[in-house]
Design a protein that fits this description.
Length: about 425
């Protein structure tokens, strides 16, 4: 079998890349080791940049009609006795333009939308229950059932998540950093009026609730690393109480979970590959980086990688500029952005990692000041959204730390717009004639 681009892994990153390529007439073979749906929970929060990308791929309407919009994320800090002590929020609508909201969508529904759209094109060859075993001499070895076959390709893209065979074939090692906490995660029914995201925290507890469509809610609850087995030994009522203590609004709903069967353990890790490209191979998404889930970025980073690499490959084919050196343009754009989001997610994780009262106090004051200062708030939302990158200044740090007063004046809309990534920022090779 021969193709232009061979993609290992039909997760969200691989599928987004495939759709981008097949629309431009590029031949794609994708192998996915699973026969059907993923058996585990995965990312479900779509940040604004991902929505912009999906708009470009003509799936925006289908995605939004299958998703729950989230404009505001409430951050609720509880006292030791679990009464509301402080409340602040993150507001996506401070971002100018069409893409000023996040969306919650079932992971498999999203994958299905993108895969179905790609399958319209005869140059997309999706092979499920097929595992890539390795890549050597411009050939990928694929195992499907008892059969093995080779696929010859011009480019090989690793989109196979954390355990990446492509990364291995490229000789790239990553060193995962672990955290002192894990999460339990599960989806269950919610009240129909529970439509905003909510994060509840006290000095030693954390619960995130993110509404999905169909009156469901995805939850993540922080537990100390290694405690899962012990917690799971308790009756299910214990789990219900962990949740209802913090979020009384879900009392009567979380109890719909009658046993532990759907409740999963989620272990956060962080790593970042030194390079994303070697010869005619490149890695995207979790194959290239893993990010703490606190800021809801993992899936979005995979989509954003796919967009930049996809646009680059399309241009390389259009211009017959298939020199593998050109693939570096992808890494040049994406690595620095990923680095910053990994750093931000890591900081958010640390803010909830230490079960001490002073940490809880500092956290709530920091969030309060961020909400009060329109410049800080905009920076935070811009960075999280993926639509731009505006690092915090020394002054910002002083304001957050309470050593300087918060600014009262919002930024003019033109200034905010200037901070959004332009097409030149996203695809610099087009403008600088680099191919
Ligand atoms: C429990 C959990 C919750 C998460 N929550 C969030 C969230 O709320 N928001 C967010 O943004 N991110 C979240 N993430 C992270 C997010 O799901 C990932 O970052 C994202 O799915 C990465 O996409 P990907 O396409 O790179 O890899 P994956 O989604 O891991 O897809 C890789 C695919 O490759 C296949 N594969 C692997 N090896 C091979 C092989 N050798 N041959 C063929 N196929 C192969 C796998 O079966 C899989 O389908 C969460 C992750 C987990 C585990």
């Amino acid at each position: 079998m021969k193709t232009d681009v061979f993609i290992t892994g039909g997760g969200i990153g691989g599928l987004t890349l495939a759709l981008k390529l097949v629309r431009a007439g590029i031949d794609v073979v994708m192998v996915e080791k699973l026969p059907g749906k993923q058996p585990v929970y995965k990312g479900e929060l779509l940040q604004p940049k991902s929505m912009q990308i999906f708009d470009g791929l003509l799936v925006y309407d289908e995605v939004t009609s299958n998703a729950q919009i989230i404009e505001i994320l409430d951050l609720i800090e509880l006292s030791k006795t679990l009464h509301v002590k402080d409340q602040s929020f993150m507001d996506y609508t401070v971002i100018p333009g069409k893409y000023n909201a996040a969306y919650m969508i079932h992971h498999e529904v999203l994958k299905n939308i993108i895969r179905k759209r790609a399958e319209i094109y005869p140059n997309f060859h999706y092979i499920n229950s097929a595992s890539c075993k390795g890549i050597e001499h411009d050939k990928a070895l694929v195992q499907k059932g008892k059969d093995q076959f080779e696929v010859e390709a011009t480019f090989f893209i690793g989109a196979e998540g954390r355990a990446s065979v492509t990364r291995q074939a490229m000789g790239i090692k990553v060193e995962p950093i672990k955290y002192n906490h894990h999460f339990i995660t599960v989806t269950f029914p919610r009240p129909s009026n529970f439509v905003g995201g909510q994060i509840f925290s006290s000095y030693n507890r954390f619960l995130g609730l993110f509404p999905l469509p169909d009156n469901q809610v995805r939850s993540v609850y922080l537990i100390p690393a290694g405690e899962y087995k012990r917690i799971k030994e308790k009756p299910i009522d214990h789990f219900h109480k962990l949740y209802t203590d913090l979020a009384p609004a879900i009392d009567g709903y979380v109890q719909k979970l009658e046993d532990w069967s759907k409740i999963q353990l989620m272990i956060p890790i962080m790593y970042h590959a030194d390079t994303y490209v070697k010869g005619n191979k490149a890695i995207i998404g979790d194959a290239a980086h893993a990010v703490h889930p606190m800021a809801g970025e993992g899936m979005n980073m995979a989509i954003q990688d796919a967009d930049i690499l996809g646009e680059l490959l399309v241009d390389m084919y259009k211009l017959s500029a298939l020199n593998v050196e050109n693939l570096k343009q992808y890494e040049n754009v994406r690595k620095v952005r990923a680095d910053y989001l990994i750093h931000l997610s890591h900081l958010s994780a640390l803010a909830y990692s230490f079960p001490f009262q002073p940490v809880s106090w500092i956290r709530s004051k920091t969030f309060e000041r961020m909400e009060e200062d329109p410049v800080l708030h905009f920076k935070q939302m811009l960075n999280v959204s993926g639509l731009g990158m505006w690092k915090e200044s020394v002054r910002d740090r002083f304001i957050q730390g309470g050593m300087m007063p918060t600014r009262k004046k919002d930024l003019p809309i033109e200034k905010k717009e200037m901070k959004l990534f332009s097409s030149e920022d996203d695809y610099p090779w087009k403008w600088k004639g680099l191919l």
